[in-house]
Structure formats: structure tokens, C-alpha cells
Known about the structure:
- It is built from eleven helices and 15 strands.
- The protein is α+β, with helices and mostly antiparallel strands.
- It folds into two domains: about 20-235, Sandwich (Jelly Rolls), CATH 2.60.120.560; about 240-435, no CATH class.
- The strands form two sheets. Strands 1, 3, 4, 6, 11, 12, 13 and 15 form an eight-stranded antiparallel β-sheet that branches.
- Strand 7 and strand 8 (about 115-125) form a beta hairpin.
- The longest helix has 27 residues, at about 405-430.
Amino acid sequence: MRSGETRPGRGCHGGLIPVILLLLSGGLSQAALEPQLCQRGEVLLADDFEDLGTVPGRWFFREQWTVAKGTMIRTAVPGENQRVFVKKPRYGNCIIELKVAFQGAGEIRVMTGTPGKYNAVVLLWPHGFRVTTARDQTVPHFPTIHGECAHQFEKGLFYAVMIEIHGEEILVRVGNENHVVVGRHPILARERDYFAFQVDRPGAAFDEVRLVSARGRADGWPAARGRFEKLQSQRPWLPHGVEEQQKVREMIARDQLYRGSEEFRGKVARVEERKAAAARQFPEVFRTVKERRKEIAAARKRLTEEDPAYRTLRNAINKLKRAEVDLLHLLHPGLKELPEAQYHAALARARSESQEATALQMVVANQKVMEVRMRTRYPQLEKTNENLRAEGRAARAKVADTPEFKLATRAVGEAVGAEKEAVMKAAEALAMVFAGEKANQ
């Protein structure tokens, strides 16, 4: 990103920089953020996206993402919560730096993860940001929210973001030292193998992305942490509706209880034990959508190995998909020579622009015919999430009036109620103030 493209937004308590100052300054570039929690170590990733020839293949691009004008962009191709991620990263304590611009999106997430689980996730909105840690049953811990800070992201302008993680501590700053959230959680002290950006809808842009290992805590961190914690404690949370406020309180309360109360951990264990017992007794009722999806995947694998008719249909569909791409290459010379970072978005654009081409219509029509045959012959493989939930409801209806099911669900309900009551009491006791709301008594 070039100098002069960024400028500060509102502070955590609001207050725009006078417009006249911005006009006189030509936009006011932000001062570079420097690490406060961590000392810089080895550079693991550094991409400025200026030269397509140097954009490394470690980014996994799909049609909702491309590189243009020296930035990585969430394109106008439809799709909710689309991600671009780094292939097979390996890192632990780290410093994540980037510049980000909202260009129509409503939410941007910077996501990290440990094997099979999410870890620290930073949510950016046009009016502020939130720092969270996800649930990880392998530790185990509940998800929590470490804090929020108001920040006005003016559309089209780039803002610096720095995320530092060391041991159990996390520090996130946007724009300058006053837009900050600091947190601490044992789930953070993990090795990570996932790094991604997620954008809810078009569009957003990213630049100067750096992932650096941390070789130790920075000198003066305890004093800096004290300043940040004081600043964080003196400002309200972002404005939210009543339901979201309660959700935030309960999430924080549940995590705090689980970490600090052996009695509450016992309540959680009792819920899990009773749910597991009910699932063993009535597996069709309590099988989750995710579990049902795994069964469908296993069925696909089994059919591939054992059913020649399935293989024939599957291969025919794949052949027609390749034929569609080959035809688009012919209709749009130079398409297949594009670098990986631009190819998938360009292919989607070419497909949209070529809808009136007769040859393409024939290929697509034949593909749809084969897909209908596949769905007709193997309907068990083409179920939506709503179909799968309906299966669970149907299974429940069959046993709902039996004494055994009533006993099992009553036991689960009692355990869940006891846990919920504890969380509600703890949530009520939290001293939290949301912007625009009176203090929680």
C-alpha cells in the first residue's frame, strides 16, 4: 500500500478529527504500529500484493478473491462469509500485521486456529472491532469475548491492524495506540496451523500482510499492559441490541465460571454426560447435522469404491465441468494464462459474461441433466441441512411420547437448567456498560 492512503478514524469514545485538518494534511498517513507485547522474530509471511509475479502460491484463492491494484480483494462474486487462507502455516507466539479497507462489507474477520479448532478471532466492523477466543473442546474451554473498541472505518480507506499473541495474552490495536483491546486466556497458548481472512459480503481489501513469529515478550510490557487495561476499563462496550448484550454477558460469564469454579465445571460435565446418554439411547434423535454430513461423505466414498453406476455419473458430471472451463478458455483468450491469484475471479466473470453463448449453454444444460440423474438415483446424497434437521424432528416425533424418551430428556433438561441458572446469575453480576445504555446493575 502506498503512503497517504490511510488516516485515523474515530477514537474509542468517538470524536472525528476536524475535517479541515484532514484537508490540509492531504489525508494524514497513520504512524506505523510497533509491537508492545512481543519482540519480532522470524518473518513467516510478508505479502504486499504489488507484483503479481511475486504473489506466492501459499494463499488459497477462489472466485470470491483476487489481487488487483496492489491489494488482495474480496470480489463482487456473490457468497456469504467467504474466506481466503494460507496453506499449511505453522506458528505459535506471533505478530500479525495488515492494512484493511472496508469497501462495502459489513464484517471482516482475522482468524487463527489450532489443529481442527479455531483460536483467536478478531472481528472488524465499520464502527469498531471485537477480540474473541473460540471454543476448543480439546483443552477444553468455552469461547469468550475479551473486549470491544469503537473505531470508524471510513469506506475505501486503509487502516493498520496489529494482533500480538504471546502465551496466554493477546493485544489488538487498530489505527493507533488508543484503539486497543487486551485479553488473556489459556486457550491462546497453543501452536497454530490456520490463518485466514473472512468477509461477510463484497467488498474489502487487504494489504501489507505480515505474519511474524514472536521470540519473547517486549521490554516494558507489564507497564504497557496496565495502560491498555485501564483504557479498556474506562470505555463502554459497543452499542448492541438487548438480545446481543445478553448473549455477550452470558458468553463471558460462562467462560469465567468454567475457568474459575469447580462446581460449575461439574454442572457442565453433568450436561455432557446426560446428553451423551440420551444420544446413545436415541441416536437418530440426537444425531447432529455435522454427524449426518459425515455419514453422507462416507456413503459417497463407499459408492465410489463399490458402485460402477455412481462412478459413471460422477465422472460424466466432472467431465462436463471440465468441458465448461475449457470452453470458457476458448471464449476468453488469455484466461488460463492468468496467475492463480487472479484466475478464479476472472473465470467467474467470464462465465457470467458468456451466458448467451450457445455452446456454453449446451454444456451447462447437459451437466444439469446429469446432476438431476444423480439426485434421482442417489437422493440420500443430496440432502440440505433443513432435510437433515427434519430427519431429526421426525425421529423425535416417533419416540416423543414414550416414557424412556421423556425420562432421558427430563434428565438433560434439568442439567441444562442448572448450568443456565448459574450462567444467568454470573451474567447479571458482570459490571458491563454498553454504549448508549445505562450501567448494568
